[in-house]
User: Which sequence fits this backbone?
Protein backbone atom coordinates (compact mmCIF):
# COMPACT_ATOMS: atom_id res chain seq x y z
CA UNK A 1 0.00 0.00 0.00
CA UNK A 2 1.41 3.39 -0.87
CA UNK A 3 1.49 6.16 1.67
CA UNK A 4 -1.21 7.96 -0.26
CA UNK A 5 -3.64 5.31 0.89
CA UNK A 6 -2.40 4.62 4.38
CA UNK A 7 -2.99 8.28 5.20
CA UNK A 8 -6.63 7.77 4.44
CA UNK A 9 -6.70 4.79 6.76
CA UNK A 10 -8.48 2.95 3.98
CA UNK A 11 -7.52 -0.62 3.41
CA UNK A 12 -10.58 -1.19 1.28
CA UNK A 13 -9.48 -0.70 -2.32
CA UNK A 14 -12.86 0.56 -3.37
CA UNK A 15 -12.60 3.37 -0.83
CA UNK A 16 -9.15 4.27 -2.04
CA UNK A 17 -8.92 8.01 -2.42
CA UNK A 18 -5.59 8.95 -3.85
CA UNK A 19 -5.02 12.57 -3.08
CA UNK A 20 -1.65 11.98 -4.62
CA UNK A 21 -1.09 15.54 -5.70
CA UNK A 22 -0.73 16.40 -2.03
CA UNK A 23 2.23 14.05 -1.70
CA UNK A 24 5.66 14.77 -3.07
CA UNK A 25 6.41 12.16 -5.74
CA UNK A 26 9.66 11.25 -3.99
CA UNK A 27 7.79 10.07 -0.89
CA UNK A 28 5.36 8.05 -2.86
CA UNK A 29 7.87 6.45 -5.16
CA UNK A 30 10.06 5.40 -2.25
CA UNK A 31 7.11 3.46 -0.93
CA UNK A 32 6.47 1.59 -4.15
CA UNK A 33 10.02 0.87 -5.22
CA UNK A 34 9.93 -2.52 -3.54
CA UNK A 35 11.08 -5.52 -5.57
CA UNK A 36 8.36 -6.67 -7.91
CA UNK A 37 7.34 -3.11 -8.73
CA UNK A 38 3.74 -2.03 -8.61
CA UNK A 39 2.50 -5.60 -8.58
CA UNK A 40 3.10 -5.63 -4.84
CA UNK A 41 1.48 -2.30 -4.14
CA UNK A 42 -2.07 -2.97 -5.19
CA UNK A 43 -1.78 -0.40 -7.93
CA UNK A 44 -2.79 -1.13 -11.50
CA UNK A 45 -1.78 2.30 -12.79
CA UNK A 46 0.62 4.81 -11.34
CA UNK A 47 1.21 8.19 -12.98
CA UNK A 48 3.64 10.84 -11.72
CA UNK A 49 4.42 14.19 -13.29
CA UNK A 50 2.99 13.17 -16.65
CA UNK A 51 3.37 15.82 -19.33
CA UNK A 52 2.64 15.85 -23.04
CA UNK A 53 3.28 18.77 -25.35
CA UNK A 54 2.26 19.16 -28.96
CA UNK A 55 4.62 21.86 -30.16
CA UNK A 56 3.93 24.82 -27.89
CA UNK A 57 0.61 23.43 -26.74
CA UNK A 58 0.69 21.65 -23.38
CA UNK A 59 -2.03 19.03 -23.64
CA UNK A 60 -1.21 17.39 -20.32
CA UNK A 61 0.55 19.44 -17.62
CA UNK A 62 2.20 17.36 -14.88
CA UNK A 63 -0.55 15.12 -13.61
CA UNK A 64 -0.36 12.49 -10.88
CA UNK A 65 -2.86 9.79 -10.11
CA UNK A 66 -3.20 6.14 -9.17
CA UNK A 67 -5.66 3.42 -10.02
CA UNK A 68 -5.93 0.61 -7.50
CA UNK A 69 -6.32 -2.96 -8.64
CA UNK A 70 -9.92 -4.05 -8.79
CA UNK A 71 -11.45 -0.60 -8.84
CA UNK A 72 -13.41 1.29 -11.46
CA UNK A 73 -11.90 4.69 -12.07
CA UNK A 74 -13.88 7.22 -14.09
CA UNK A 75 -11.76 9.73 -15.96
CA UNK A 76 -13.81 12.82 -16.77
CA UNK A 77 -13.11 16.03 -18.57
CA UNK A 78 -14.34 18.25 -21.37
CA UNK A 79 -13.15 17.79 -24.94
CA UNK A 80 -9.61 19.05 -25.29
CA UNK A 81 -8.84 18.54 -21.60
CA UNK A 82 -6.10 16.03 -22.41
CA UNK A 83 -8.16 12.92 -21.66
CA UNK A 84 -7.51 11.08 -24.90
CA UNK A 85 -3.83 11.96 -24.81
CA UNK A 86 -3.54 10.60 -21.27
CA UNK A 87 -5.47 7.43 -22.04
CA UNK A 88 -3.45 6.75 -25.16
CA UNK A 89 -0.22 7.20 -23.22
CA UNK A 90 -1.48 4.65 -20.68
CA UNK A 91 -2.47 2.32 -23.52
CA UNK A 92 0.97 2.59 -25.10
CA UNK A 93 -0.27 4.28 -28.26
CA UNK A 94 1.31 7.66 -27.60
CA UNK A 95 4.61 8.90 -26.25
CA UNK A 96 4.87 11.24 -23.29
CA UNK A 97 7.01 14.34 -23.03
CA UNK A 98 7.94 13.77 -19.39
CA UNK A 99 6.95 11.94 -16.25
CA UNK A 100 6.66 8.40 -14.97
CA UNK A 101 3.95 6.02 -16.08
CA UNK A 102 3.54 2.49 -14.82
CA UNK A 103 0.69 0.30 -16.00
CA UNK A 104 0.59 -3.19 -14.50
CA UNK A 105 4.17 -2.63 -13.43
CA UNK A 106 5.51 -1.76 -16.88
CA UNK A 107 6.12 1.38 -18.91
CA UNK A 108 3.49 1.19 -21.67
CA UNK A 109 5.76 3.00 -24.11
CA UNK A 110 8.17 0.05 -24.10
CA UNK A 111 5.85 -2.78 -23.13
CA UNK A 112 5.72 -5.90 -25.26
CA UNK A 113 3.23 -8.62 -26.16
CA UNK A 114 3.22 -10.11 -22.64
CA UNK A 115 1.96 -6.79 -21.28
CA UNK A 116 -0.57 -6.44 -24.11
CA UNK A 117 -1.96 -9.83 -23.14
CA UNK A 118 -2.86 -8.45 -19.70
CA UNK A 119 -4.54 -5.25 -20.94
CA UNK A 120 -7.88 -5.04 -22.75
CA UNK A 121 -8.71 -1.91 -24.71
CA UNK A 122 -12.09 -0.76 -26.00
CA UNK A 123 -11.20 1.97 -28.45
CA UNK A 124 -13.35 5.06 -28.69
CA UNK A 125 -14.15 4.97 -32.36
CA UNK A 126 -13.97 1.44 -33.63
CA UNK A 127 -15.96 0.23 -36.58
CA UNK A 128 -16.99 -3.36 -37.25
CA UNK A 129 -14.48 -5.88 -38.48
CA UNK A 130 -15.37 -6.12 -42.14
CA UNK A 131 -16.98 -9.26 -43.50
CA UNK A 132 -16.53 -11.39 -40.39
CA UNK A 133 -19.25 -12.88 -38.25
CA UNK A 134 -19.40 -12.09 -34.53
CA UNK A 135 -18.08 -15.49 -33.49
CA UNK A 136 -15.31 -15.45 -36.12
CA UNK A 137 -14.25 -12.05 -34.94
CA UNK A 138 -13.92 -13.28 -31.37
CA UNK A 139 -12.09 -16.42 -32.55
CA UNK A 140 -9.64 -14.26 -34.52
CA UNK A 141 -8.85 -12.15 -31.46
CA UNK A 142 -8.82 -15.08 -29.04
CA UNK A 143 -6.07 -16.55 -31.22
CA UNK A 144 -3.76 -13.64 -30.37
CA UNK A 145 -3.69 -14.43 -26.64
CA UNK A 146 -1.82 -17.06 -24.64
CA UNK A 147 -4.78 -17.90 -22.37
CA UNK A 148 -7.99 -16.56 -23.92
CA UNK A 149 -11.49 -16.89 -22.57
CA UNK A 150 -13.77 -19.45 -24.13
CA UNK A 151 -15.44 -17.66 -27.03
CA UNK A 152 -18.91 -18.78 -25.92
CA UNK A 153 -18.25 -17.44 -22.45
CA UNK A 154 -17.09 -14.08 -23.88
CA UNK A 155 -20.24 -13.92 -26.01
CA UNK A 156 -22.33 -14.64 -22.95
CA UNK A 157 -20.54 -11.99 -20.88
CA UNK A 158 -21.76 -9.27 -23.24
CA UNK A 159 -25.13 -10.85 -23.97
CA UNK A 160 -24.36 -11.58 -27.63
CA UNK A 161 -24.86 -15.35 -27.72
CA UNK A 162 -27.87 -15.04 -30.02
CA UNK A 163 -25.88 -12.81 -32.41
CA UNK A 164 -22.91 -15.18 -32.79
CA UNK A 165 -23.66 -15.92 -36.45
CA UNK A 166 -24.42 -12.34 -37.47
CA UNK A 167 -22.13 -10.36 -39.76
CA UNK A 168 -20.46 -7.62 -37.71
CA UNK A 169 -21.61 -4.85 -40.08
CA UNK A 170 -25.24 -5.85 -39.50
CA UNK A 171 -25.11 -5.19 -35.76
CA UNK A 172 -26.78 -2.16 -34.21
CA UNK A 173 -24.59 0.49 -32.59
CA UNK A 174 -25.17 -0.94 -29.13
CA UNK A 175 -24.47 -4.51 -30.23
CA UNK A 176 -21.31 -3.38 -32.02
CA UNK A 177 -20.13 -1.68 -28.83
CA UNK A 178 -20.80 -4.86 -26.87
CA UNK A 179 -18.75 -6.78 -29.41
CA UNK A 180 -15.96 -4.21 -28.92
CA UNK A 181 -16.09 -4.96 -25.21
CA UNK A 182 -16.06 -8.72 -25.85
CA UNK A 183 -13.01 -8.33 -28.10
CA UNK A 184 -11.24 -6.42 -25.33
CA UNK A 185 -12.15 -9.11 -22.79
CA UNK A 186 -11.45 -12.25 -24.81
CA UNK A 187 -7.79 -12.26 -23.76
CA UNK A 188 -8.89 -12.32 -20.10
CA UNK A 189 -7.11 -9.06 -19.20
CA UNK A 190 -6.43 -7.76 -15.70
CA UNK A 191 -7.01 -4.15 -16.72
CA UNK A 192 -9.63 -2.88 -19.14
CA UNK A 193 -9.69 0.56 -20.76
CA UNK A 194 -13.22 1.58 -21.70
CA UNK A 195 -13.24 4.76 -23.77
CA UNK A 196 -16.76 6.23 -23.82
CA UNK A 197 -18.33 2.78 -23.87
CA UNK A 198 -21.98 3.88 -23.96
CA UNK A 199 -21.89 6.88 -26.31
CA UNK A 200 -24.83 6.52 -28.68
CA UNK A 201 -26.69 3.99 -26.53
CA UNK A 202 -30.38 4.24 -25.74
CA UNK A 203 -31.22 4.25 -22.01
CA UNK A 204 -31.94 0.53 -21.74
CA UNK A 205 -28.77 -0.43 -23.63
CA UNK A 206 -26.87 1.89 -21.34
CA UNK A 207 -28.19 0.21 -18.22
CA UNK A 208 -27.33 -3.20 -19.67
CA UNK A 209 -23.81 -1.97 -20.34
CA UNK A 210 -23.52 -0.60 -16.83
CA UNK A 211 -24.51 -3.91 -15.34
CA UNK A 212 -21.97 -5.62 -17.54
CA UNK A 213 -19.22 -3.25 -16.40
CA UNK A 214 -20.12 -3.88 -12.77
CA UNK A 215 -19.96 -7.61 -13.47
CA UNK A 216 -16.43 -7.09 -14.77
CA UNK A 217 -15.39 -5.57 -11.49
CA UNK A 218 -16.99 -8.58 -9.83
CA UNK A 219 -14.54 -10.69 -11.84
CA UNK A 220 -11.68 -8.72 -10.31
CA UNK A 221 -10.84 -6.58 -13.34
CA UNK A 222 -9.51 -3.08 -12.94
CA UNK A 223 -11.46 -0.67 -15.14
CA UNK A 224 -10.31 2.67 -16.47
CA UNK A 225 -13.45 4.34 -17.76
CA UNK A 226 -13.53 7.50 -19.83
CA UNK A 227 -16.95 9.08 -20.15
CA UNK A 228 -18.88 12.27 -20.74
CA UNK A 229 -21.86 11.10 -18.68
CA UNK A 230 -21.98 12.10 -15.03
CA UNK A 231 -24.66 9.57 -14.21
CA UNK A 232 -22.44 6.86 -15.68
CA UNK A 233 -19.50 7.92 -13.53
CA UNK A 234 -21.71 8.22 -10.48
CA UNK A 235 -23.30 4.81 -11.00
CA UNK A 236 -20.16 2.87 -11.85
CA UNK A 237 -17.05 4.51 -10.48
CA UNK A 238 -15.36 3.80 -7.20
CA UNK A 239 -13.37 6.91 -7.81
CA UNK A 240 -13.50 9.86 -10.19
CA UNK A 241 -10.67 11.97 -11.56
CA UNK A 242 -11.61 15.20 -13.33
CA UNK A 243 -9.21 16.63 -15.87
CA UNK A 244 -9.50 20.15 -17.26
CA UNK A 245 -7.05 22.09 -19.43
CA UNK A 246 -4.44 19.39 -18.94
CA UNK A 247 -4.58 19.37 -15.14
CA UNK A 248 -6.37 17.25 -12.57
CA UNK A 249 -8.83 19.63 -10.93
CA UNK A 250 -10.41 17.13 -8.57
CA UNK A 251 -10.35 13.50 -7.56
CA UNK A 252 -12.38 11.51 -5.09
CA UNK A 253 -15.49 9.39 -4.81
CA UNK A 254 -18.69 10.57 -6.44
CA UNK A 255 -19.87 11.56 -2.93
CA UNK A 256 -16.89 13.63 -1.93
CA UNK A 257 -15.39 14.97 -5.13
CA UNK A 258 -15.01 18.74 -5.36
CA UNK A 259 -16.16 19.16 -1.72
CA UNK A 260 -19.50 17.81 -2.80
CA UNK A 261 -20.16 16.36 0.69
CA UNK A 262 -19.88 19.77 2.31
CA UNK A 263 -21.38 21.78 -0.54
CA UNK A 264 -24.60 23.71 0.04
CA UNK A 265 -27.96 21.97 -0.15
CA UNK A 266 -30.71 23.67 -2.12
CA UNK A 267 -34.26 23.69 -0.72
CA UNK A 268 -36.92 24.84 -3.19
CA UNK A 269 -40.67 25.37 -2.78
CA UNK A 270 -43.54 27.62 -3.91
CA UNK A 271 -45.22 29.97 -1.40
CA UNK A 272 -49.01 29.89 -0.97
CA UNK A 273 -50.89 32.72 -2.73
CA UNK A 274 -51.28 35.04 0.24
CA UNK A 275 -47.72 34.72 1.59
CA UNK A 276 -44.74 36.89 0.63
CA UNK A 277 -41.07 36.01 0.86
CA UNK A 278 -40.79 38.16 3.99
CA UNK A 279 -43.08 35.68 5.70
CA UNK A 280 -40.53 32.87 5.44
CA UNK A 281 -38.87 32.31 8.85
CA UNK A 282 -35.11 33.01 9.09
CA UNK A 283 -32.85 30.01 8.44
CA UNK A 284 -29.07 29.58 8.05
CA UNK A 285 -28.12 30.21 4.43
CA UNK A 286 -29.29 32.49 1.69
CA UNK A 287 -32.92 32.84 0.72
CA UNK A 288 -33.86 34.05 -2.74
CA UNK A 289 -37.41 34.54 -3.95
CA UNK A 290 -38.57 35.11 -7.50
CA UNK A 291 -41.64 37.00 -8.75
CA UNK A 292 -43.69 33.84 -9.20
CA UNK A 293 -43.38 33.02 -5.45
CA UNK A 294 -40.67 30.43 -5.97
CA UNK A 295 -38.28 30.33 -3.02
CA UNK A 296 -34.79 28.89 -3.15
CA UNK A 297 -32.78 28.43 0.03
CA UNK A 298 -29.12 27.56 -0.22
CA UNK A 299 -27.94 26.23 3.11
CA UNK A 300 -24.86 24.47 4.41
CA UNK A 301 -26.96 22.88 7.17
CA UNK A 302 -30.15 21.44 5.68
CA UNK A 303 -31.71 19.58 8.61
CA UNK A 304 -32.22 22.53 11.03
CA UNK A 305 -33.48 24.64 8.12
CA UNK A 306 -35.97 21.95 7.16
CA UNK A 307 -37.07 21.70 10.80
CA UNK A 308 -37.78 25.44 10.98
CA UNK A 309 -39.57 25.35 7.63
CA UNK A 310 -41.73 22.36 8.44
CA UNK A 311 -42.94 23.66 11.81
CA UNK A 312 -43.65 27.05 10.17
CA UNK A 313 -45.63 25.37 7.39
CA UNK A 314 -47.48 23.06 9.78
CA UNK A 315 -48.41 25.95 12.07
CA UNK A 316 -49.96 27.89 9.21
CA UNK A 317 -51.32 24.90 7.34
CA UNK A 318 -49.21 25.58 4.20
CA UNK A 319 -48.89 22.42 2.10
CA UNK A 320 -45.60 23.38 0.32
CA UNK A 321 -46.35 20.27 -1.71
CA UNK A 322 -43.65 20.94 -4.33
CA UNK A 323 -40.79 21.16 -1.83
CA UNK A 324 -37.53 19.62 -3.01
CA UNK A 325 -34.17 19.13 -1.33
CA UNK A 326 -31.16 18.69 -3.60
CA UNK A 327 -27.47 18.36 -3.09
CA UNK A 328 -25.40 19.89 -5.82
CA UNK A 329 -25.27 17.24 -8.51
CA UNK A 330 -22.06 15.71 -9.77
CA UNK A 331 -22.79 17.60 -12.96
CA UNK A 332 -22.89 20.93 -11.07
CA UNK A 333 -19.56 20.12 -9.44
CA UNK A 334 -18.08 19.04 -12.76
CA UNK A 335 -19.22 22.18 -14.55
CA UNK A 336 -17.92 24.43 -11.78
CA UNK A 337 -14.52 22.71 -11.67
CA UNK A 338 -14.00 22.54 -15.42
CA UNK A 339 -15.16 26.12 -16.00
CA UNK A 340 -12.85 27.39 -13.28
CA UNK A 341 -9.96 25.64 -14.98
CA UNK A 342 -10.57 27.03 -18.43
CA UNK B 1 0.01 -20.50 -29.82
CA UNK B 2 3.47 -20.19 -31.28
CA UNK B 3 4.37 -17.28 -33.54
CA UNK B 4 4.03 -19.29 -36.79
CA UNK B 5 0.69 -20.65 -35.57
CA UNK B 6 -0.63 -17.15 -34.82
CA UNK B 7 0.57 -15.99 -38.25
CA UNK B 8 -1.17 -18.93 -39.94
CA UNK B 9 -4.31 -18.14 -37.90
CA UNK B 10 -4.19 -14.53 -39.14
CA UNK B 11 -3.67 -15.64 -42.76
CA UNK B 12 -6.78 -17.86 -42.57
CA UNK B 13 -8.92 -14.92 -41.46
CA UNK B 14 -7.38 -12.43 -43.91
CA UNK B 15 -8.02 -14.86 -46.76
CA UNK B 16 -11.57 -15.42 -45.60
CA UNK B 17 -12.25 -11.69 -45.57
CA UNK B 18 -10.73 -11.33 -49.05
CA UNK B 19 -12.83 -14.15 -50.45
CA UNK B 20 -16.00 -12.65 -48.95
CA UNK B 21 -15.39 -9.24 -50.46
CA UNK B 22 -17.30 -9.01 -53.73
CA UNK B 23 -15.42 -5.92 -54.98
CA UNK B 24 -12.05 -7.52 -54.26
CA UNK B 25 -13.08 -10.73 -56.01
CA UNK B 26 -14.29 -8.92 -59.12
CA UNK B 27 -11.34 -6.56 -59.49
CA UNK B 28 -8.64 -9.01 -58.46
CA UNK B 29 -9.82 -12.35 -59.83
CA UNK B 30 -12.54 -11.79 -62.44
CA UNK B 31 -11.20 -8.76 -64.32
CA UNK B 32 -7.87 -10.27 -65.45
CA UNK B 33 -9.64 -13.43 -66.65
CA UNK B 34 -12.19 -11.38 -68.62
CA UNK B 35 -9.38 -9.30 -70.15
CA UNK B 36 -7.55 -12.47 -71.12
CA UNK B 37 -10.61 -13.97 -72.81
CA UNK B 38 -11.33 -10.69 -74.58
CA UNK B 39 -7.82 -10.03 -75.88
CA UNK B 40 -6.97 -13.58 -76.84
CA UNK B 41 -10.24 -13.73 -78.79
CA UNK B 42 -9.78 -10.35 -80.48
CA UNK B 43 -6.12 -10.59 -81.42
CA UNK B 44 -5.86 -14.30 -82.03
CA UNK B 45 -2.22 -14.84 -82.73
CA UNK B 46 -1.73 -12.26 -85.46
CA UNK B 47 1.80 -10.99 -85.32
CA UNK B 48 2.83 -7.47 -84.76
CA UNK B 49 6.13 -5.79 -84.25
CA UNK B 50 7.41 -5.15 -80.76
CA UNK B 51 10.83 -3.66 -80.21
CA UNK B 52 11.73 -4.41 -83.80
CA UNK B 53 10.82 -8.10 -83.38
CA UNK B 54 7.64 -9.83 -84.48
CA UNK B 55 5.52 -11.16 -81.62
CA UNK B 56 2.24 -13.08 -81.62
CA UNK B 57 -0.77 -11.33 -80.10
CA UNK B 58 -1.18 -14.01 -77.43
CA UNK B 59 2.50 -14.05 -76.54
CA UNK B 60 2.21 -10.32 -76.11
CA UNK B 61 -1.07 -10.04 -74.19
CA UNK B 62 -0.87 -13.07 -71.87
CA UNK B 63 2.24 -11.69 -70.09
CA UNK B 64 0.83 -8.16 -69.96
CA UNK B 65 -2.40 -9.41 -68.39
CA UNK B 66 -0.40 -11.54 -65.94
CA UNK B 67 1.43 -8.35 -64.93
CA UNK B 68 -1.93 -6.64 -64.52
CA UNK B 69 -3.20 -9.56 -62.38
CA UNK B 70 -0.15 -9.46 -60.12
CA UNK B 71 -0.44 -5.68 -59.69
CA UNK B 72 -4.15 -5.97 -58.91
CA UNK B 73 -3.62 -8.66 -56.28
CA UNK B 74 -0.49 -7.33 -54.64
CA UNK B 75 -0.77 -3.57 -55.02
CA UNK B 76 -4.35 -2.40 -55.63
CA UNK B 77 -5.99 -4.96 -53.38
CA UNK B 78 -3.43 -4.70 -50.60
CA UNK B 79 -3.69 -0.91 -50.52
CA UNK B 80 -7.48 -1.08 -50.45
CA UNK B 81 -7.55 -3.69 -47.66
CA UNK B 82 -4.83 -2.14 -45.51
CA UNK B 83 -6.18 1.43 -45.77
CA UNK B 84 -9.72 0.23 -45.00
CA UNK B 85 -8.51 -1.68 -41.96
CA UNK B 86 -6.39 1.24 -40.82
CA UNK B 87 -9.18 3.78 -41.17
CA UNK B 88 -11.87 1.70 -39.49
CA UNK B 89 -9.55 1.12 -36.56
CA UNK B 90 -9.03 -2.61 -37.13
CA UNK B 91 -5.24 -2.27 -37.35
CA UNK B 92 -5.11 -0.22 -34.17
CA UNK B 93 -7.36 -2.73 -32.44
CA UNK B 94 -5.04 -5.56 -33.47
CA UNK B 95 -2.04 -3.60 -32.20
CA UNK B 96 -3.84 -3.33 -28.85
CA UNK B 97 -3.45 -7.13 -28.55
CA UNK B 98 -0.29 -9.24 -28.18
CA UNK B 99 -0.16 -9.95 -31.92
CA UNK B 100 3.09 -8.61 -33.33
CA UNK B 101 3.36 -6.17 -36.21
CA UNK B 102 5.41 -8.58 -38.32
CA UNK B 103 2.71 -11.25 -38.03
CA UNK B 104 0.07 -8.88 -39.37
CA UNK B 105 2.34 -7.70 -42.20
CA UNK B 106 3.36 -11.25 -43.05
CA UNK B 107 -0.29 -12.22 -43.21
CA UNK B 108 -1.19 -9.39 -45.58
CA UNK B 109 1.77 -10.25 -47.81
CA UNK B 110 0.98 -13.97 -47.71
CA UNK B 111 -2.64 -13.28 -48.63
CA UNK B 112 -1.46 -11.17 -51.57
CA UNK B 113 1.02 -13.84 -52.70
CA UNK B 114 -1.63 -16.57 -52.53
CA UNK B 115 -4.04 -14.37 -54.46
CA UNK B 116 -1.42 -13.41 -57.05
CA UNK B 117 -0.33 -17.03 -57.49
CA UNK B 118 -3.97 -18.08 -57.91
CA UNK B 119 -4.70 -15.47 -60.58
CA UNK B 120 -1.42 -16.13 -62.45
CA UNK B 121 -2.11 -19.88 -62.37
CA UNK B 122 -5.62 -19.27 -63.71
CA UNK B 123 -4.30 -17.05 -66.53
CA UNK B 124 -1.54 -19.50 -67.45
CA UNK B 125 -3.94 -22.46 -67.47
CA UNK B 126 -6.69 -20.70 -69.41
CA UNK B 127 -4.29 -19.43 -72.06
CA UNK B 128 -2.66 -22.88 -72.21
CA UNK B 129 -5.81 -24.91 -72.68
CA UNK B 130 -8.13 -22.43 -74.40
CA UNK B 131 -5.60 -20.67 -76.65
CA UNK B 132 -2.71 -23.10 -76.93
CA UNK B 133 -0.14 -20.82 -75.30
CA UNK B 134 2.23 -23.45 -73.94
CA UNK B 135 5.25 -23.17 -71.68
CA UNK B 136 8.23 -25.45 -71.17
CA UNK B 137 9.21 -26.37 -67.60
CA UNK B 138 11.98 -23.76 -67.71
CA UNK B 139 9.56 -21.11 -68.98
CA UNK B 140 7.07 -22.03 -66.25
CA UNK B 141 9.79 -21.59 -63.64
CA UNK B 142 10.61 -18.19 -65.15
CA UNK B 143 6.95 -17.11 -64.96
CA UNK B 144 6.83 -18.32 -61.35
CA UNK B 145 10.01 -16.42 -60.52
CA UNK B 146 8.75 -13.22 -62.13
CA UNK B 147 5.45 -13.65 -60.30
CA UNK B 148 7.10 -13.97 -56.90
CA UNK B 149 9.50 -11.08 -57.46
CA UNK B 150 6.72 -8.93 -58.89
CA UNK B 151 4.35 -9.78 -56.03
CA UNK B 152 6.96 -9.03 -53.39
CA UNK B 153 7.86 -5.70 -55.00
CA UNK B 154 4.21 -4.70 -55.43
CA UNK B 155 3.40 -5.62 -51.80
CA UNK B 156 6.27 -3.50 -50.53
CA UNK B 157 5.15 -0.69 -52.77
CA UNK B 158 1.57 -1.21 -51.59
CA UNK B 159 2.52 -0.63 -47.95
CA UNK B 160 4.31 2.55 -49.04
CA UNK B 161 1.30 3.73 -51.07
CA UNK B 162 -1.04 3.32 -48.07
CA UNK B 163 0.90 6.06 -46.32
CA UNK B 164 -0.16 8.57 -48.98
CA UNK B 165 -3.85 7.71 -48.88
CA UNK B 166 -5.75 9.51 -46.14
CA UNK B 167 -9.19 7.89 -46.24
CA UNK B 168 -10.76 4.51 -46.92
CA UNK B 169 -13.07 6.14 -49.46
CA UNK B 170 -10.17 7.29 -51.63
CA UNK B 171 -8.27 3.98 -51.43
CA UNK B 172 -10.37 2.04 -53.96
CA UNK B 173 -11.03 4.70 -56.65
CA UNK B 174 -7.66 6.47 -56.25
CA UNK B 175 -5.47 3.42 -56.64
CA UNK B 176 -7.69 1.94 -59.34
CA UNK B 177 -7.38 5.15 -61.38
CA UNK B 178 -3.59 5.36 -61.04
CA UNK B 179 -3.07 1.68 -61.86
CA UNK B 180 -5.49 1.96 -64.80
CA UNK B 181 -3.28 4.70 -66.27
CA UNK B 182 -0.16 2.64 -65.56
CA UNK B 183 -1.71 -0.39 -67.28
CA UNK B 184 -2.65 1.76 -70.26
CA UNK B 185 0.81 3.26 -70.80
CA UNK B 186 2.43 -0.10 -70.05
CA UNK B 187 0.67 -1.68 -73.02
CA UNK B 188 -1.76 -3.89 -71.12
CA UNK B 189 -4.87 -2.70 -72.97
CA UNK B 190 -3.38 -2.27 -76.47
CA UNK B 191 -0.05 -3.04 -78.15
CA UNK B 192 2.48 -0.58 -76.86
CA UNK B 193 3.90 -0.17 -80.36
CA UNK B 194 0.88 2.09 -80.90
CA UNK B 195 2.22 4.42 -78.23
CA UNK B 196 4.77 7.18 -78.84
CA UNK B 197 8.26 6.30 -77.69
CA UNK B 198 8.26 8.82 -74.87
CA UNK B 199 5.13 7.26 -73.34
CA UNK B 200 6.91 3.92 -73.27
CA UNK B 201 9.86 5.64 -71.63
CA UNK B 202 7.57 7.09 -68.97
CA UNK B 203 5.97 3.66 -68.43
CA UNK B 204 9.42 2.13 -68.06
CA UNK B 205 10.02 4.32 -65.00
CA UNK B 206 7.09 2.66 -63.18
CA UNK B 207 7.05 -0.99 -62.09
CA UNK B 208 4.23 -2.42 -64.24
CA UNK B 209 6.08 -2.38 -67.58
CA UNK B 210 9.27 -3.96 -66.18
CA UNK B 211 7.13 -6.71 -64.63
CA UNK B 212 5.28 -7.20 -67.94
CA UNK B 213 8.55 -7.41 -69.87
CA UNK B 214 9.91 -9.85 -67.28
CA UNK B 215 6.96 -12.20 -67.80
CA UNK B 216 7.00 -11.63 -71.58
CA UNK B 217 10.64 -12.71 -71.65
CA UNK B 218 9.54 -16.05 -70.19
CA UNK B 219 6.76 -16.49 -72.76
CA UNK B 220 8.61 -15.28 -75.86
CA UNK B 221 12.31 -15.00 -75.13
CA UNK B 222 13.18 -14.39 -78.78
CA UNK B 223 10.72 -11.56 -79.26
CA UNK B 224 11.20 -8.88 -76.72
CA UNK B 225 14.12 -7.26 -75.02
CA UNK B 226 16.30 -10.13 -73.83
CA UNK B 227 19.36 -7.99 -73.22
CA UNK B 228 17.43 -5.87 -70.80
CA UNK B 229 15.79 -8.60 -68.77
CA UNK B 230 18.16 -8.38 -65.82
CA UNK B 231 17.59 -4.64 -65.79
CA UNK B 232 13.82 -5.17 -65.64
CA UNK B 233 14.13 -7.42 -62.59
CA UNK B 234 16.62 -5.04 -61.02
CA UNK B 235 14.19 -2.16 -61.46
CA UNK B 236 11.36 -4.18 -59.90
CA UNK B 237 13.59 -5.06 -56.97
CA UNK B 238 14.53 -1.39 -56.61
CA UNK B 239 10.84 -0.44 -56.46
CA UNK B 240 10.38 -3.09 -53.77
CA UNK B 241 13.30 -1.84 -51.70
CA UNK B 242 12.10 1.75 -52.14
CA UNK B 243 8.65 0.67 -50.97
CA UNK B 244 10.11 -0.96 -47.87
CA UNK B 245 12.16 2.14 -47.06
CA UNK B 246 9.18 4.48 -47.41
CA UNK B 247 6.81 2.17 -45.56
CA UNK B 248 9.20 1.59 -42.68
CA UNK B 249 9.46 5.35 -42.16
CA UNK B 250 5.84 6.33 -42.78
CA UNK B 251 3.55 3.36 -42.24
CA UNK B 252 0.87 3.92 -39.61
CA UNK B 253 -1.46 1.56 -37.76
CA UNK B 254 -3.58 4.45 -36.51
CA UNK B 255 -6.53 6.03 -38.37
CA UNK B 256 -5.47 9.29 -40.03
CA UNK B 257 -7.94 11.35 -38.02
CA UNK B 258 -6.28 10.26 -34.76
CA UNK B 259 -2.71 11.02 -35.74
CA UNK B 260 -0.83 13.34 -33.45
CA UNK B 261 -0.78 16.90 -34.57
Assistant:
Amino acid sequence: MPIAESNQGADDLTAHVAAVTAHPPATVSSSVSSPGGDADTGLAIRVRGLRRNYGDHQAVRRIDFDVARGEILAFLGPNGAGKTTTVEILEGFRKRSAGEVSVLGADPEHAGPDWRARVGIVLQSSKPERLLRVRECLELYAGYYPAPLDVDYALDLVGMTDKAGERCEKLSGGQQRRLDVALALVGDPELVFLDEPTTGFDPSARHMAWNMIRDLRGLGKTIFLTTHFMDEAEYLADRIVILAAGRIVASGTSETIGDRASAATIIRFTLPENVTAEGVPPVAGTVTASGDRRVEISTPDPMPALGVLSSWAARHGYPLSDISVDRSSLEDIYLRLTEDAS
Amino acid sequence: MTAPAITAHQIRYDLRVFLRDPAARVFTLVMPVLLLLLYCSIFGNSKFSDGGQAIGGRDYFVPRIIAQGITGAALTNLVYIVVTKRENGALKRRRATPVRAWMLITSEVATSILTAVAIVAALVLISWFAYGVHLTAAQTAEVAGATLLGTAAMCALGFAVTTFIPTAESAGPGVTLVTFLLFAISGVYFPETLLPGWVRDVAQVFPVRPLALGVQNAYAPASGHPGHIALQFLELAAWGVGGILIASRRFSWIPGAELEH
